[in-house]
Amino acid sequence: MKKSIQELIKQRILILDGAMGTMIQQYNLKEEDFRGKRFQSIPGQMKGNNDLLNITRPDVIKDIHRKYLEAGADIIETNTFNATSISLSDYHVEDLVKEINLEATKIARSIANEYTLLTPNKPRFVVGSVGPTNKTTSMSPDVNNPAYRSVTYDDVASAYLEQIEALLEGGVDAILIETIFDTLNAKAAIYAAEEAMNKTGRNVPLMLSITVSDTGGRTLSGQTLDAFLASVQHADIFSIGLNCSFGASQLKPFLKQLASRAPYYISAYPNAGLPNSLGGYDQTPQEMAVQVKEYIDEGLINIIGGCCGTTDAYIAEYSAIIAGAQPHSPAAKPGVLWLSGLELLEVKPEMNFVNIGERCNVAGSRKFLRLIQEKKYDEALSIARKQVEDGALIIDVNMDDGLLDAQEEMTTFLNLIASEPEIARVPIMIDSSKWEVIVAGLKCIQGKSIVNSISLKEGEEKFLQYARAVKQYGAAVVVMAFDEKGQADTFERKVEVCERAYHLLVDKVGFNPCDIIFDPNVLAIATGMEEHNNYAVDFINAVGWIKKNLPGASISGGISNLSFSFRGNNYIREAMHAVFLYHAIREGLDMGIVNPATSVLYTDIPSDILEKLEDVVLNRRPDAAERLIELAEGLKNTSTDKTQEKRQDTWRTGTLQERLQYALVKGVSDYLDDDLKEALTIYNKAVDIIEGPLMAGMNYVGELFGAGKMFLPQVVKTARTMKKAVSFLQPIIEAEKHDGISSAGKVLLATVKGDVHDIGKNIVSVVMACNGYEIIDLGVMVPAETIVQQAIENKVDIIGLSGLITPSLEEMVNVAIELEKAGLNIPLLIGGATTSQLHTALKIAPVYGGPVIHLKDASQNAGVAGKLLNPELQKDFVRELDNTYKTLRENRNEIKQEVVSLEEAQKNKLNLF
Description:
Elements: H1 5-8, E1 14-15, H2 20-25, H3 31-35, H4 53-56, H5 58-70, E2 75-77, H6 85-88, H7 97-118, E3 125-130, H8 153-170, E4 174-180, H9 183-200, E5 206-210, H10 225-231, E6 239-247, H11 248-261, E7 265-271, H12 285-297, E8 303-304, H13 312-315, H14 318-322, E9 337-340, E10 344-347, E11 354-361, H15 366-373, H16 377-389, E12 394-398, H17 406-418, H18 421-424, E13 428-431, H19 435-442, E14 450-454, H20 460-473, E15 476-480, E16 482-483, E17 486-487, H21 491-509, E18 516-519, H22 535-549, E19 554-555, H23 570-587, E20 591-594, H24 607-617, H25 624-634, H26 642-652, H27 656-666, H28 672-682, H29 686-706, H30 712-736, E21 745-751, H31 759-770, E22 773-777, H32 784-794, E23 798-802, H33 807-821, E24 828-831, H34 837-844, E25 852-854, H35 861-868, H36 871-912
Helix pairs in contact: 5-7, 7-8, 8-9, 11-12, 17-19, 20-21, 21-22, 22-23, 23-24, 24-25, 27-28, 27-29, 27-30, 29-30, 30-31, 32-33, 34-36
C-alpha cells in the first residue's frame, strides 16, 4: 500500500522538484506556443503566461515533470504558480482559472502515478502550487494614500478559493502556498484552503513557504519570521519553509531560525546562488549541493528542493547527500500566548505585565474621537505612536461611535497603521461591540491580533459561531465574563462563566487554550453601594482561580473601570490602579488596558494613602470607602494643582543622588540637565556619574521591576531618561579623553537578533570607551552569523551581548554555539534585564569553550575586561568563575532532585489512602 506523505516525512528527507520557469526557458518557446490555436485573438502578449502552457503545450510541462522525477524528486509541483484570477487577469484569461488548474493537476498526477507504479516503495506526490499573486493586501500601491489597497482580503481569498477548489478536485496530495511575501495574502490563502477542503470534502496537508526580502530576515511586508509563525499559528500546518530569496548559503541563517521555532516539518528550496548582473545564475549543481548538505548535516530540514535558476541537474545531486540522513524534528509547540505585529510578542509570566494602550478608542478619548471625526489621521496615528513609545506592547483600537461609520474607520485606520513600522511592530487589539467591525479589522491585519471581545450573553450558538470565525481568521480572543444571566460580578459567577466558556472553546471549537484571554470584569469600587465593595477582591481571586484551573488561558481587564467613582481626581485613580495591579499581577493578571503614560508607582504612594487605598481595594474594613472619599476630597486634582507642585518640590529638596534616582525611576527629565551640571562639579569625571548615581538608579529600577512594583512601560520611560543623561554627558566624556593613549583592547558589542533594546549596551559602550577600549557597536537585531563574522574580521578581544526580552536568552545561547563552531575562544560578556548568572551558568557557558561572564550592570564591564585581558589575572579569574558556575549547576541539580523526591513522597502519601 502506498505510504502517505505524512508517513514518509517522519522516515526520511523528501526531495521536491526545482524551478518550473527556469526549465520552461530551456525550451525556447515562442508567442505561438503560448497562444496555440485557441487563444489567437486575445489582446496583448501571451508569452510569459506559463500557466497557460497546461492547455497549449501540456507536452512541455509533462516533460519537465518527468525530468524532475528522473532526477529523484519525491514531490512535484503543479504548474499553477500564477493560476489565480488576479494574476491571470494580466493576460485577459482570468475566466480560465478552473480549467488551467484542473489541466495542470491532471498532467502532474498522471506522470507521478506512472513513476509510483514503477517503484511502489518510492511513491511520488503532487502538490498544488499556490503563488502569492502580484498584488498585496498589506501595502498601498499609492504613496499619496497609504490607506488605499488595490485588492482586499475578500478579493484575494475569493481568488484563492477558486484555484484551490480546482486543485483539490484534480487530486493533488497537498496544497503549497509559496513565495509568501505578504502574510495577509497568506492568511487569505489559508482561509481559502480551509474553505475549499470543507467544500470538496478533501483534507490534504497544508504547506507554507516564505520568501525573505532582506538580510534582516523580514518579508517584503515587514514581518520577522517569528512574527509570521504567530500569524499562521491557528492553521493546521503540515510544513513551513523558505524558498527563493537567496542562495542556499545566504538562506541558511534564516532557515536555522525558522527550524528552531516552528512546530512543523521544515522545507527549503533556495535559488541557485545569487543572480549575476544579467539576472542569470552561475552556481553549479555541485556547488549548491555542498551548501545544501549543511542543512542536512545540521538537521534543519525535512523537504529539500530548488527555486530560481535550478533545474533537474541540481535536483539530481540531492539523492546522494540525503541518503541515510536524519530528518528534522519539529520544535515543541509554544505553551504561551503568541501575538504579533511586524514582530513577535510572546506573553510569558516573566514579562510581569503587558500594557495595552487605551488611547486609540473613540469611546475613551475625546481627542481621538475628534481627530477621527475630522479625518485628521496623521494626528490620530501620532497618538498610537506615542503609546508605543511610552511602552504599550499592544494597541487597542475602537471606532464604536454613533456618528462614525465604524467599519470604514476601522479599516482605514488599521491600513494606515500598517504603513507606520513604529506602530505596526506591535499587535493590535480590535475592539468593538459590532461583529462586522471586528471582521473588517481582522481582514486588515497581517499579524496575530486580539479580538475584544466575545461572550456568552447571546447564548452558546452565537458564541461558538463567533469563536470559530476568530480562529479561522487567526486571532486570539478576549472572552468577557458575561452569559445569558448577565455580567458576572461575584467570584462565583466569574469562575462559573469563565470555566464554561473555556471548555466550549477548547472542546467544541478546538481553540488553542493559549489564545484565550479572559476578562473577568473589573468593576467600580468605593461607589457607596455595599454590594460593590468586594468587586476588586472578587476579580483578584478569580484571576488566581483561572490561572490554577484553566491551563494556558491569559487574563486581562479594563483597569480604569475600577476607579470610575473618582473621575476628576487623577492622582487617586492612578494610585488606586497601581495598588490593584500590584495585587492582581501577583495572582497572575497578564495584561490590561491602561494608560501607558501613567506616572504613579506603587512604591511612590505614601504609607497613609497606601493604607486607605488597600483598605478599599482589598475590602479590609466597612468604612474604607468613606475614608478614601474623605482623603480624595483633600487631594482633589492632585496631579495638576498646587499639591502636586508641593510633591515635586519635596523631591527636589533631596540630595543629588536622590534627585537623579527619582528622575530615573519616574522617567522625569525636566531637571536632568541642571542636576547633571551639578554632578560635574562633584565627581572627578563624567563617566563616574554614569557608574555612580545613574547606575544605582538603574539598579533600583531593576529591583522594582523584579518585585512587580514597576511595569515595562515605566521601565521604558526610565530607559529614555537614562539615554538623555548619557547623551548629555557624552561630549564631556569625549573631551576628557587623552590623546595618544593606546587601546586597552577591542570590544564588539551587539544587541542580539530579535531584540531592539540598546540602552544598556550604549551605557556599556560609553563606560568601556572611557576606560581606553576601542568599541565596535553592531547595533540591534544582530544575527549570530554577523557577530561571528565581525569578531573574526576585526580581531576583537572581547564580545559583549545585550538583550532585554526573554527570547534574547535563547539567542545568546545560539550565538555562543556559533562562536564555538567557528573555533573562537574570545571572552563573552552577557548583560541585559532578563539575563542572570544562573542562566549563564546553565545554558550559555556549557556550549562555549571561551570564558562566559554575566555582568549585572555596566559599571562592572571595564574591571572584568581588564582581568580577562591580563594574562596574569585571567587564569585565576576564569578558574574562580568556573567553580562558581559548577556550584550553581550542582545546586540547581540538587534542587531539582529535591523537587522530584518531594513529588514522589506526595505520591506515596496519596497512595497510602
